[in-house]
Amino acid sequence: MVKAPEDEHPVKAFGWAARDNSGTLSPFHFSRRATGEKDVKLKILYCGVCHSDLHSVKNETGKVTYPVLPGHEIAGVVTEVGSQVTKVKVGDKVGVGCMAGSCRSCENCTNDLENQCPKMVLTYRSKYFDGTTTYGGYSDIMVCDEHFIVRWPENMPLDAGCPLLCAGITTYSPLKYFGLDKPGTRVGVVGLGGLGHVGVKLAKAFGAIVTVISTNPDKKEEAIKSLGVDSFLVSSDQDQMMAATGTLDGILDTVSAHHSVQPLLSLLKNNGKLILLGVIPKPLELPVFPLLAGRKIVAGSGIGGMKETQEMIDFAAKHNITADVEVIGMDYINQAMERLEKADVKYRFVIDVAGTLKDA
Ligand code: NAP
Ligand code: ZN
Ligand code: ZN
């Protein structure tokens, strides 16, 4: 017999979940497993609101089963550890990102690429190895294998730091892998949202010269003044786009909706790389001539492994990089999702989970 989410495990838990593709979130009682030998139990303090959460609650990728309890930018404090846990202790600040499990033995896992493991378990909306559904960080507590726990740097704030667990690693990993982490590299960032603004900060810390390509001219002044963006292109302005033809070594494309990549390919130098990060269910149209003529590369990248996630957050702490956040209460989440849909946030909503989640 299939057990109700409340009865699957011994530990009572509470959060907010979507029940159907309206995406509306509401209070939800469920349960967490007892803390196993290698598990860490944490009290969730803050959780970022990633656009993937919005895609998921609305089932825009067509892969989810409800209820969906999102949240994969989780910061909290350890309340219990299993007998075999060595990474952290009770009272430590920790993070949990997009992954809650992987096989740990395949070629990807042994190369610190758990994110590419065929058996990778997402922090929410996946099946865990025990057959139960994973539920994310819009909730009071979590139990997670220590391998998927991130140690929290001392000087990193929990609220402004938690978005790094997805937005940070998703932009850090391709900057490094595709060689866009060298001083003087000309990096473009398309879409100045959660991922985009963190990508800008990381690229700047690597010493890159950063161009933002945005649909919204109103973001220009602040992008230049407070994010240190070197150049800002409004994607609908043909003259600006034309003038920047062939200027970029690489582009992180963080756009969350269907769009044309042709103008972006034009911005690349020969041998330049367009790296797609947005979760876009419908295929994009790919013109081949600019690729042939300029030996350009179109690639994709998905989050990053655990070792690199730790490296990223330590790098961010060293360079005083956090996300620019609007901290909200749990009961504001549905309005926040509506605003996120319209790109009306600078630049990441973060839920004050511990301060505002009240058991119904
Ligand atoms: P976000 O905060 O909503 O930012 C996306 C930005 O894209 C917006 O701020 C907007 O920037 C731009 N944009 C939105 N709609 C657009 C449209 N129709 N045409 C052109 N530009 C548009 O989202 P996010 O949390 O950064 O996530 C971005 C995407 O990455 C989502 O699809 C998310 O699911 C995905 N994601 C992927 C990974 C991965 O591992 N690859 C990880 C996390 C998230 P402007 O106002 O500046 O134009
Ligand atoms: Zn995310
Ligand atoms: Zn594996």
UniProtKB/TrEMBL annotation:
InterPro entries, per database record: ADH-like_C, ADH-like_N, ADH_Zn_CS, CAD-like, ER, GroES-like_sf, NAD(P)-bd_dom_sf
GO molecular function: cinnamyl-alcohol dehydrogenase activity; metal ion binding
Gene Ontology biological process terms in this record: lignin biosynthetic process
Enoyl reductase (ER) domain location: 23-351
Annotated EC: 1.1.1.195
Domain of life: Eukaryota
Cofactor(s) for this UniProt protein: Zn(2+)
UniProt-listed CDD domains: CAD1
Signal peptide coordinates: none
Keywords: Metal-binding, Oxidoreductase, Zinc
Keyword Transmembrane helix tagged: no
Keyword Zinc: yes
Annotated PANTHER family: ALDEHYDE REDUCTASE
Protein family (similarity comment): Belongs to the zinc-containing alcohol dehydrogenase family.
UniProt name for this protein: 8-hydroxygeraniol dehydrogenase
Native organism: Castilleja foliolosa
Record lineage: Eukaryota, Viridiplantae, Streptophyta, Embryophyta, Tracheophyta
